[in-house]
Design brief:
The structure holds two protein chains of two kinds.
Chain A: H1 3-22, E1 39-40, E2 45-47, E3 53-55, E4 63-69, H2 74-90, E5 95-101, H3 107-117, E6 122-125, H4 128-133, E7 141-145, E8 150-156, H5 161-173
Parallel strand pairs in A: 4-5, 5-6
Antiparallel strand pairs in A: 1-8, 2-3, 4-7, 7-8
Chain B: H1 3-13, H2 18-31, H3 35-53, H4 57-93, H5 104-139, H6 143-176, H7 186-189, H8 192-219, H9 226-246, H10 255-259, H11 265-278, H12 284-299
Helix pairs in contact in B: 1-3, 4-5, 4-6, 4-8, 5-8, 5-9, 6-8, 9-11
The chains are: A alpha/beta, B mainly alpha.
């Protein structure tokens, strides 16, 4: 390829990049539902790795980040450090992060994963009933639950980290 | 003749056989024809030569058996690869925060992701190279035309890929009972770069360029023994089988629409099991190119 060709390709690439950046539709973020329109989150009682039962109602009065994930879901795994960061940052302010694993092989695959990834928040093993109750068809799926136990925001697919952060702060500031 | 017309003359003469091309370019330089006259003269000659070539069954067989199916298949795999990796790249590039690097899981997942993306890209690059190698081996004097045709099919495939994915969602719904609509990861694809430009970059860099490279390599021939030729033929066949069984739905794109029959997972499971065992063979172009480079260096005359 001669110099003209390289210049032409470079200019075209720059132009296309500029046009595509300009054509952004605006990132879709899960909108936080107004308090009056929120629906109650389905109750569940699931066991964690030590056999301790964890119920959603145990966290009434706290803001819950509920993450449905699996060890085979790569996008889910990449979100874990984000959620770990939220857990550390907002734990004392009243945020609880709960990961619901939907691995069909159960603790056999989940326990070693938790150890190597050093996940600092609670992980429970989900089942079909819980998945159905939350309408999980693909993962990851993330829900923000307000202090009253109602779903304030639902994220289908990978989340926008900044949006989750903003929504957590907004939910913490709700009385 | 100015540079613009000369570029057009050179470009169009590339479709002629190399000896004829040199003769034609030499004649043009001697005659002192004007740019447009020289260009349209060469273009007319190219059209006449192509018309004769396409009277034969061979170019049609290559078009129907290699360029069309492999071109469309590669553009679909390319779209899948770019969409899949776009999600992970977005998760890091658009959400970077140095604070996250302190998390032990961060480095582990970054490592896993990088390796996964690397091998996906490597696979696509190797498949494209092999497709180009096969096309180059079968082209015989039609390399330039077939190269352009492949690029055209890749471009059409890029445009048609979303329609194909709609079909796959329908197929998977009927065969596996999966949800019809998955609007997840919109946060990634609402960014035009990942939706529009990134698939194009992946297709150019990992499909078009390796395929043209493979074509060029095949055209320059191979001086090797019968055993090496046999080994290459086997690895080419295995790689092609890997490619065509990667997207089972692709081969049913027309079938179920006519018959209404959707093959069940039991039909594909044994095929998928065998292809998993043969997966490492698809990286043979790397060994081939390395061996070729080493041999070339060895044969290079030593200047004292």
């Amino acid at each position: 390829m001669n110099l003209h060709g390289i210049r032409f390709l470079t200019l075209s690439a720059l132009l296309a990049t500029g046009l595509s950046m300009g054509a952004d539709q605006g990132t879709v973020r899960a909108n936080r539902q107004p308090a009056g329109q929120r629906k109650a989150a389905s109750e569940f009682a699931l066991e964690d790795g030590s056999g301790r039962q964890i119920s959603l109602k145990d966290y009434r009065g706290k803001v819950v980040l509920l993450d449905f994930w699996a060890t085979w879901c790569h996008g889910c795994k990449l979100e874990i450090p984000w959620f770990a960061d939220f857990s550390r940052k907002y734990r004392d302010k009243g945020v609880v992060v709960v990961g619901v694993s939907l691995d069909s092989d159960g603790w056999k695959v989940v326990t070693p994963f938790i150890k190597t990834a050093e996940i600092p928040y609670g992980i429970v093993l989900g089942n079909d009933d819980v998945a159905k109750a939350y309408g999980i068809e693909n993962m990851p799926d993330t829900f923000l639950i307000d202090r009253e136990g109602r779903i304030a925001a639902a994220y289908n697919g990978v989340v926008d980290r900044q949006s989750v952060d903003n929504n957590l702060q907004a939910l913490l500031s709700e009385k | 003749m100015n540079g613009f017309w000369w570029s057009l003359v050179e470009l169009s003469s590339g479709f002629l056989a190399s000896d004829e091309r040199e003769a034609v370019l030499g004649d043009i330089l001697e005659s002192g024809d004007s740019g447009p006259r020289a260009f349209f003269g060469v273009l007319g000659l190219v059209v006449r030569r192509q018309a004769v070539a396409w009277m034969n069954w061979r170019p049609w067989a290559v078009l129907m058996a290699v360029i069309l199916p492999l071109g469309f298949l590669l553009s679909i795999v390319s779209h899948e690869t770019s969409d899949g990796s776009a999600i992970y790249i977005w998760m890091y590039a658009n959400n970077w925060d140095w604070a996250l690097t302190k998390n032990p899981g961060f480095w582990r997942f970054l490592g896993e992701t990088s390796i996964s993306i690397f091998f996906t890209y490597l696979t696509l690059g190797c498949w494209s190279w092999v497709a180009g190698f096969v096309l180059g081996s079968l082209s015989r004097g039609m390399e330039r035309v077939n190269g352009w045709l492949l690029c055209l099919i890749l471009m059409l495939g890029e445009l048609g890929a979303p329609r194909y994915f709609e079909y796959v969602i329908e197929y998977e719904h009927r065969a596996f009972g999966l949800a019809r609509l998955f609007d997840g990861n919109r946060v990634v694809f609402d960014v035009a770069f990942y939706r529009v430009l990134f698939p194009l970059i992946v297709q150019v860099v990992l499909v078009a360029l390796p395929a043209l490279w493979g074509m060029r390599r095949a055209r320059s021939g191979l001086k090797a023994g019968r055993f090496v030729h046999l080994a290459i033929a086997i690895t080419v066949i295995v790689t092609l089988l890997e490619m065509v069984t990667h997207e089972p739905s692709f081969w049913l794109f027309v079938g179920p629409r006519i018959t209404g029959l959707y093959p069940q997972p039991a039909f594909w499971n044994p095929i998928l099991h065998v292809r998993r065992l043969l997966e490492p063979i698809q990286y043979w172009p790397i060994l081939f190119l390395m061996a070729h480079a080493l041999r070339k260096r060895k044969l290079k005359p030593v200047v004292v």
